[in-house]
Each structure stands twice: as C-alpha cells, then as structure tokens.
Design goal:
- The complex is a heterodimer.
- By secondary structure, chain A is an alpha/beta fold.
- Chain A contains nine helices and twelve strands.
- By secondary structure, chain B is mainly α.
- Chain B has one domain: ABC transporter involved in vitamin B12 uptake, BtuC, CATH 1.10.3470.
- Helices cover 72% and strands 2% of the residues of chain B.
- Chain B has a two-stranded antiparallel ribbon.
Chain lengths: 262, 375
C-alpha cells in the first residue's frame, strides 16, 4: 500500500496523430497541494479532462487510495472523490447562493412522492459553509450574480468539498481575479488542504502557485518536465521552465539586436 | 466607543442582526420576478374601477367574463413561463390548440369514439408533440425558436389538411350533445360553485335573468384549471427539486449538466407541459363552443409568451415565475374585456398589449442587471 491518496502514472492521451499528453505522472498525498504549471497549449485542458473523467487516458493508470481505477464518465471520477472545479464554476448567476450550492443535489424532506426541496436546511448549510470561509452571506437567497469573482470561486470549491471531494482539481481558480481576490481564494485552498484534501491547482501564474504549492509539475507541449518539491526549485527557475527557457534566451538575444540597431 | 462595539457586533452576529434582516426582506420582495405584473394588475383594476366602475364590468357576470378570458390565456401562459424559465420557447402552442381540438372532434363525431376516449387521444398526441419538440431541440442543439416555428406551420397545416380530408370542411360541430353523461368531459365543461350563485341570486345580490335564474351561473372550468395550475406550478418552482432543475437548466445548461442536473430531460418535460396546457385550453374551449375549428388558437403562442414576459420571465431563461405569468394573463384578460365597458375603441387593445410588453421587457432587463450586478 502506498500512502498516496491518488496517483496518475504515465498518463498519455492521443487525438488521432496528435499527442496531447505523453507520460505525465502525478502523485498526491493527503493535505498536499500540487501545482500544475504550463503555458497555453501545454496540455493542461486535456489533463484536467482526463483527471475529471471526461477523457479516458490511452496509456497509463489511475490509482485512487491504492486501487487501480478507470473513469468512464465524470460521474465515476466524482464518485471516487475527485471533484473538478472548472473555470466557468458551474454556477448560475441568476440563482440564489443556496440553490446554486445544492444544484442537482438538493436535500429533500417529506413523505415519498411528496418530497420537497428542504430550503430551510439548505439555506442553513449554505450560510454555515460560506461563513466558514469567512464570506458573510447575510441572505443565502441572494443571487450569486451579486457576489464577487473570488466569492464565487470559493462557493464552487466549498460546494465540491461539502459533497465529499477528497481530491480537488481546480482549473485556473485565480486567473480572472484581482490581487486581493486571488489571495482570498488561495488562502481558502490552503485551508482546504490543511483539512486533509489533496489539491491539484492548475494555473499559468507562477506567482499565485509558488506561495501555496508543496510541489510543482511543469507541463510543456504535452510532456511533463518533471515534478519538483518546493525546496528544490526557485520561483525564477519555475518561471523560465514554464515559458521554455530557450525561448526567453532567444528573445533576449533578439531584443539586444534591436537595441544595437537603434 | 459604543459605535465601535456595535460595528463589531454586526460583523460577527450577522444572523441575529434585525436591521440587516429587514433590508434583505425588502430586497427579497423587490427581487421577486412577479412584482411588476402584480403592480400592473393592481393598476389595471384601479383604472377600470374608476373608468368603468358604474358599468356592468364588476358585476358577478362581468367579473366571471374577464376571469374566464384571463384564465384561458393563463393556462397556456403559465406553461409557456415554465418553459421560458427552462430556457426555451414554444411557438407551436397556438397550432397545438387547433390540432388538439381536431383530435377531440374528429374521432368523437366521425369515428364514433366516446368523447372521453377522444380527449385521452388528444392529450396523448400532445405528449407526443411536446416530446418531439423537446427531443429535437435537445438533440440538435438548434434554437427552440426555429424548431417550434417549424412546428407551428406543420401542426396548423396538418390540422387544416386532415380536417378537410376527412370532413370536407374546416369546422367540426356537434359536440355539445356528447358532453352529458361522459365520464371525463365534465372536468373541462362544468361550472362550479353554482349553489353560491343561486343563493346570491335568491338574495337579489346579483343580476337575474327574466326566468329568475342568475345571469352568472357558476365559476367556469377554465378559472378552476387556471388557479390549480398556478398553485401547482408555483409550488413546483419554489419547493421541489425539479423546480430547482428548471431554473438551473435555463440559467446555465452547461453548468447545470456539470453538477448532474438532467438538463435534457427537464427541457423535454417542459415542452410536453406546453403542449398539454394547449390541449387543456383546447378541450375547455371545444366543449364550451360545442365545435372544433382548425384556426382556433391562432397567435395564442405570442399572447402566452407576452403574458409570461409581463409576468417577469427573461427571454434568456433562468428567471421568472409562474404566478407572475398568471398575473400577466389577468392583466391582458381584464383589459381585453374591460375595454368594451369604456368608450375606447377595442382596436386599441393590441396597442396596449404591445406597449405593456415593451415596458415589461425594459423593466425586467433592468431587474436582471440589478440581480446579477457584482458588488
């Protein structure tokens, strides 16, 4: 038995002749935050969809709590406790906080055939859960549209945790947020991990990833450039790996040339 | 010092703070989608109370008259509102009314079916049409506006063609004699609470015919159906899981899908709902008139959508209310009848209808922006 909560070993995914992912390996323990870094087109989206059960990997294995598993659908992944929070958050801005929180999984009460949506209970839980994050929802029946981007992100994460996520896959949770909002969300992610969740944080923003991550996997053109513990790598090194160090060097040379001509 | 401790209190004790609670309750009311329609209905009643208060409009007979008209529109408006909240349109409601009427009349008159069987047949056809509309929209991903517009023509054309083929005419009369003793038809054709009106008549409180029976004989079936539907659909929207799914499907179908809401099934069921509502409308009218007409229900789909919009439904889905649509129908019904009691030419009704809808859309748009506005 390994002490890893979830392992993705040598995952590959092909679309026809295109190699979208090749031999990507990620292992997470409880309470660990792994940041998956990569520029646009590095294969992040394909990897997320593979983790979420949307795509089936063509090669490699997924091991959850020591058991080898295959995800046939997003529901399978969810049932195994792997919850993915996509960029669009799956929130309806015209609907209330409570109705969003329990969307698709409404608590019910009453006799069979006359079961009703237990709004009071739902309101209570939603307000409680949001309160735990430090978001004061005075009125859980207010529309999600009135919340800030950071609050919405926290709501989506909080919902995933409430419904039994063990592994959280977060797709660019801070990309649309300002500095302050992003820090609120990052704080919440750290808090969630400290409660025993494993978090895969997908981002292209090293400045957001570095303070919170325990380990970093850099993805480039569908391949993993390796996984590094925080103590073994600096922020600058990560940055240059992500952008492709060569490319930056080339850019530097080109810029010098332009300067010389001037 | 005291102000400081107070501000801390409001922060930590947000659930207990009465001041905050009050504000949120007021906001809750303002955020309700049916508010505009409720206000509109009250204004309409005040207006006709002043302009036509001394005419027969508010006699028992007059009230039942405009309630009947409102209720008929309301039955389809409520179903249209549910579908709009679910994010889709149904432009085939009017054609479905004509089609359902023929589905009752031809088997009953020409094929010798018992009336109840014809009614069951019409409702079965409604479920089929609704299902077909729904599955087409869900599977193809085409806008429901286009799909149901096609269905509007197909159904109306088929109604006309089939009727002429079988009967050689466009109207099928002779149903009235079949209503008596039918085990099912009474649900759509009985005036209720007759004793109330008889009693009111005997007390000389309402107008009587020359033979001593009251002019208003009872609550028409449409009104009972209308009220029942308004209550049931409002309950569904506010209190059930399915209701939450309707809002979710209309608000963001990808998001809803991602969290496990069966969006396709929800939408199909709502399309079946509009077709069935059209058939309830048709059954009541056909039994009341004793005949089916191929052109019955023409343009009703637009009136239903207009009432739903006045009732607070957004054209983009995810927001609205069934009770609001009921108020919207009440406004249109009251004005369309009330206008007869005033000196105003009835030609102006459509102008009113359009203006009302325009105001409602602008108002709704404003509300939506308010609701979704970020802090």
């Amino acid at each position: 038995m390994s002490d890893y909560l979830v392992q993705f070993n040598n995952i590959s995914k092909f679309f026809g002749k295109v190699i979208a992912l090749k031999d990507v390996t990620m292992k997470l323990k409880k309470g660990e935050i792994m940041c998956l870094l990569g520029d646009n087109g590095a294969g992040k989206s394909t990897l997320i969809k593979t983790l979420a059960g949307v795509h089936r990997p063509d090669e490699g294995e997924i091991i959850v709590e020591g058991k080898k598993t295959i995800f046939d659908s997003p529901k399978d992944a969810l049932d195994m406790g792997i919850a993915t929070v996509y960029q669009d958050l799956a929130l309806v801005s015209l609907m209330s906080v409570t109705r969003n929180f329990f969307m698709g999984r409404e608590p019910m009460k009453g006799p069979p055939f006359f079961k009703t949506f237990d709004i009071e209970k739902a309101n209570k839980i939603a307000a409680e859960r949001m309160g735990q994050i430090g978001i004061d929802v005075r009125d859980p029946s207010q529309a999600v549209g009135t919340m800030s981007g950071g609050e919405r992100q926290c709501l989506a994460i909080s919902r995933a945790i409430y419904f039994g996520a063990k592994v959280l896959v977060l797709d660019e949770p801070t990309s649309a947020l300002g500095v302050h909002q992003a820090s609120v969300v990052l704080k919440y992610i750290v808090k969630a991990a400290s409660q025993g969740l494993a978090v895969i944080l997908i981002t292209h923003n090293v400045h957001h990833a570095y303070p919170v991550g325990n380990s970093f996997t850099v993805l480039n053109r569908g391949k993993s450039l390796g996984t590094y513990e925080k103590k073994n790598i600096s922020r600058e090194k990560l940055l240059s790996m992500m952008a492709g160090g060569e490319e930056l060097n080339k850019l530097e040379v080109e810029l010098q040339e332009i300067n010389r001509k001037n | 010092m005291s102000t400081k401790s107070k501000s801390i209190e409001t922060k930590t004790d947000f659930n207990q703070d009465e001041r905050l609670k009050k504000v949120s309750k007021l906001r809750l009311l303002l955020n309700r989608p049916e508010l505009g329609a409720l206000g509109g209905a009250i204004l309409v009643f005040i207006f006709f109370g002043i302009v036509a208060g001394d005419t027969g409009m508010f006699s028992a007979y007059g009230v039942l008259n405009f309630l009947d008209v409102s209720a008929n529109l309301g039955i389809i408006a409520i179903a249209a509102a549910m579908l709009m909240i679910g994010g889709e349109f149904d432009l085939s409601i009017g054609s479905m009314i004509g089609f359902a009427g023929i589905c009752i009349a031809i088997p009953a008159i020409y094929w010798g079916w018992p009336l109840w069987m014809s009614i069951v047949f019409a409702f079965s056809m409604a479920v089929l049409v609704g299902y077909f509309n729904g599955i087409l929209v869900v599977r193809t991903g085409l806008p429901s506006f286009i799909v149901t517009l096609a269905m509007l023509f197909i159904l109306r054309g088929a109604t006309l063609a089939i009727t002429r083929l079988i009967t050689g005419r466009t109207q099928v009369p002779g149903l009235r004699v079949l209503i008596e003793d039918d085990p099912l038809a009474w649900i759509f054709a009985t005036d209720t609470f007759k004793w109330v009106f008889t009693w009111l008549g005997s007390m000389n409180l309402i107008a009587l015919r020359t033979d001593g029976t009251p002019l208003a004989t009872g609550i028409p079936p449409s009104v009972i159906w209308f009220i029942a539907l308004a209550i049931i659909t409002t309950w569904i929207l506010m209190k059930t899981r399915y209701g939450n799914w309707i809002f979710a499907s209309g608000g963001d179908k990808n998001g809803a899908n991602n969290v496990g809401v069966p969006v396709g099934r929800v939408k199909i069921s709502l399309f079946i709902g509009t077709a069935v509502a059209a058939t309830i409308f048709a059954t009541i009218q056909v039994l009341d008139a004793g005949s089916a007409d191929t052109m019955r229900g023409t343009l009703k789909e637009l009136e239903a959508i207009a009432a739903a919009v006045v009732g607070g439904c957004l054209l983009t889905g995810g927001y609205g209310s069934a009770i609001g649509a009921a108020f919207g129908a009440l406004i249109f019904g009251t004005v369309s009848m009330g206008i007869f009691y005033t000196d105003v030419d009835t030609d102006w009704f459509k102008v009113f209808l359009g203006a009302m809808m325009l105001i409602a859309v602008i108002f709704n748009n404003y509300i939506r922006r308010k609701v979704t506005e970020s802090k």
